[in-house]
Amino acid sequence: MALNIATGSTSHSAYDLRSTFSEVVEKHTLAVIVDNEPGVLARVIGLFSGRGYNIESLTVAETDHQGHLSRITIVTAGTPQIIDQIEAQLGRIVQVRAVHDLTAEGPAVERELALLKVVATGDHRVEALRLADIFRAKAVDSTLGSFVFEITGTPEKVDAFADLMRPLGLQEIARTGVAALSRGVKTA
Amino acid sequence: MDGTTHMTREMTGARMVVQALMDQGVDTVFGYPGGAVLPIYDEIFQQNDIRHILVRHEQAAVHAAEGYARSTGKVGVALVTSGPGATNAVTGLTDALMDSVPIVVLTGQVPTFMIGSDAFQEADTIGITRPCTKANWLVKETDRLAATLHEAFHVARSGRPGPVLIDIPKDVQFATGTYAPRAGHASRYQPGRQPDPAMIEAIVEAMETAERPVLYTGGGVINSGPEATALLRELVSATGFPITSTLMGLGAYPASGPQWLGMLGMHGLYEANMAMHGCDLMLNIGARFDDRITGRLDAFSPGSRKAHVDIDPSSINKVVRVDFPVVSDVADALRAILETWKARGARTNRAALDAWQGQIDQWRARKCLTYTPSQTTIKPQYALERLEALTKGMDRYICTEVGQHQMWAAQFLGFEDPNRWMTSGGLGTMGYGFPASIGVQLAHPDALVINVAGEASWLMNMQEMGTAMQYRLPVKQFILNNERLGMVRQWQQLLHGERYSSSWSESLPDFVKLAEAFGAKGILCKDPADLDDAIMEMLNHPGPVIFDCLVEKHENCFPMIPSGKPHNEMLLGDASTKGAIQAGGAVLV
């Protein structure tokens, strides 16, 4: 006496995860202030992997030596409900002091640093230098056959610069990920 | 308790562990020794304030600590060695995380200078247990050990309770450091929040006009403590609102109370689920909209406004969007709701509530727990009805394993008080109940502690018979033996074309002989006519008992909300599944 469950239901799973919430995916930048203790970063990253959230970029460094605080800047993407969940889940980690959704809280400055190695000779070399000048990128290493450029800006600006350098001999790129602060007098 | 006054503050790390446990008021530790915790065991040997209970497997140590914690409201403690000791504790830690049980697990670790060298019995305990603890710490300096221990207890019991773990390398246990007493410990972790008065006001306003309200309560009420239970009972009796509860919340409101609807959810009562589906105001107090509760989300209680009180902000709007979110301790929220409601004149929509009660009575008249009785075989429901009748009013604690028997226990046993019901809800850990019953019995030596079990679950931690015998713990193992993995078999029958893949219990032991092999008492019962006498024999025996109750092998657990279905499409019994098939449909209402 088998029982047929109607189509459309998750008949072979105990779970029904169809969301009733908005499906519009937004990109958000979060600033997470944490105690600078071993394992905190692993706990933050484990939360994202364990619960299936995205990390587009993540940077971390100690920002207050006296207060033993580090700042983690995470760029993530998700529906509004997912973003709220990420913020709440981060907030309940014992060593997390504060979570700020910089995207939601108001305008923020976001910057990334990148190093690009361009291997080129002749016209390509000249053109690479000219474009670097336009983008205010600095040549921080040069040989007769190569440059290493340093560029700072939004991730979009770094992308644009990399796209231009690619046909000119871009061989390698290292990016720091996004660091971000809110604009104006308020602090995270 | 005040051990700090007559002792030097300089001591070894191992001594610090014992001192900190005393400082925290711990009287019982469940554990299993091994190379990396020998210094701590040496200290335990040399004192009498803390009792160490030697379990037979580290998983059981953690479940016993859970049973101890849930039946007392205190923090449970387990102590295990490095490597396999720690990995065996993982299931218990995950169980405690899912069910918000405050426990502290101490693990030994290889000495700091050997960490990372793949030493004997080395495991990355902190890495392995990070996702299954609320917090965990590797202590590398003896001077940090006492403060970390105090912080661990604080974190385990604060906010939403949960399991924490401290990994202590052996050289840190041997080395000498300065003990930091509990009194001086200040923690930065202070998760408590007061309820927002405006939100409380909005909830009260909704309560005053609600025509079809229902209280949906969960384990958060019990975790909040006795005051929350008292306030909940006051609120229910003052408003006359009907109340249902999750598996975890049973006992917060008494089963004998007039407003009690019974448990809700996948195997909840018809009247409880129908009330949830049809209500216009849902007050979720300390529950988390688990998938066993909601059924199909987009059809979950479609016509209601929802309030949700939870101490964990991440529970709010996680799966169900609510209209009145309140982040606070349950007792604080209930107190605020009651005070505000009284201050505004203690009003309810009486006429509508009477009509709502009439509707609920009609649902109740369906008698959803009805089963087909038998003169020849013991129906599992009947066994639990008799157990309930013969133990009612006793100082009774019930544990369960996981499966059909667990759901029947939740349906057929009545819980009058909180902390009397220990079951693995979130993780669904087979093998939980027996060690949990050991933890409960140690905390309540004179009480009647019964573990309602299935034979398959029970075998998962049957080695704990040794522990029960060693410490003379009169735990009653009430095994509903259907020689099947009953819930698996039920799903295979209903959803997998009756292909019973590996869901029967082959080569079962003779449970009476098994009991006798451990020096305990075994009782076999297979005739309904003998059941009462057999249960009384179990209750009257002063030691541990394995009660092998041979029950109907193919009984299904109803009511049941099939997965992917809303609350108002429950199956009420085998008869309804038959009818559904003839009709070409799946469900009844």
Automatic annotation (TrEMBL), chain A:
<comment type="subunit">
    <text>Dimer of large and small chains.</text>
</comment>
<dbReference type="InterPro" id="IPR045865">
    <property type="entry name" value="ACT-like_dom_sf"/>
</dbReference>
<dbReference type="GO" id="GO:1990610">
    <property type="term" value="F:acetolactate synthase regulator activity"/>
</dbReference>
<comment type="similarity">
    <text>Belongs to the acetolactate synthase small subunit family.</text>
</comment>
<comment type="function">
    <text>Catalyzes the conversion of 2 pyruvate molecules into acetolactate in the first common step of the biosynthetic pathway of the branched-amino acids such as leucine, isoleucine, and valine.</text>
</comment>
<protein>
    <recommendedName>
        <fullName>Acetolactate synthase small subunit</fullName>
        <ecNumber>2.2.1.6</ecNumber>
    </recommendedName>
</protein>
<keyword id="KW-0100">Branched-chain amino acid biosynthesis</keyword>
<dbReference type="GO" id="GO:0009099">
    <property type="term" value="P:L-valine biosynthetic process"/>
</dbReference>
<dbReference type="GO" id="GO:0003984">
    <property type="term" value="F:acetolactate synthase activity"/>
</dbReference>
<dbReference type="InterPro" id="IPR039557">
    <property type="entry name" value="AHAS_ACT"/>
</dbReference>
<dbReference type="InterPro" id="IPR002912">
    <property type="entry name" value="ACT_dom"/>
</dbReference>
<dbReference type="GO" id="GO:0009097">
    <property type="term" value="P:isoleucine biosynthetic process"/>
</dbReference>
<comment type="pathway">
    <text>Amino-acid biosynthesis; L-valine biosynthesis; L-valine from pyruvate: step 1/4.</text>
</comment>
<dbReference type="InterPro" id="IPR019455">
    <property type="entry name" value="Acetolactate_synth_ssu_C"/>
</dbReference>
<keyword id="KW-0808">Transferase</keyword>
<dbReference type="Pfam" id="PF10369">
    <property type="entry name" value="ALS_ss_C"/>
</dbReference>
<dbReference type="InterPro" id="IPR054480">
    <property type="entry name" value="AHAS_small-like_ACT"/>
</dbReference>
<keyword id="KW-0028">Amino-acid biosynthesis</keyword>
<dbReference type="Pfam" id="PF22629">
    <property type="entry name" value="ACT_AHAS_ss"/>
</dbReference>
<comment type="pathway">
    <text>Amino-acid biosynthesis; L-isoleucine biosynthesis; L-isoleucine from 2-oxobutanoate: step 1/4.</text>
</comment>
<feature type="domain" description="ACT">
    <location>
        <begin position="29"/>
        <end position="104"/>
    </location>
</feature>
<dbReference type="InterPro" id="IPR004789">
    <property type="entry name" value="Acetalactate_synth_ssu"/>
</dbReference>
<dbReference type="InterPro" id="IPR027271">
    <property type="entry name" value="Acetolactate_synth/TF_NikR_C"/>
</dbReference>
<dbReference type="GO" id="GO:0005829">
    <property type="term" value="C:cytosol"/>
</dbReference>
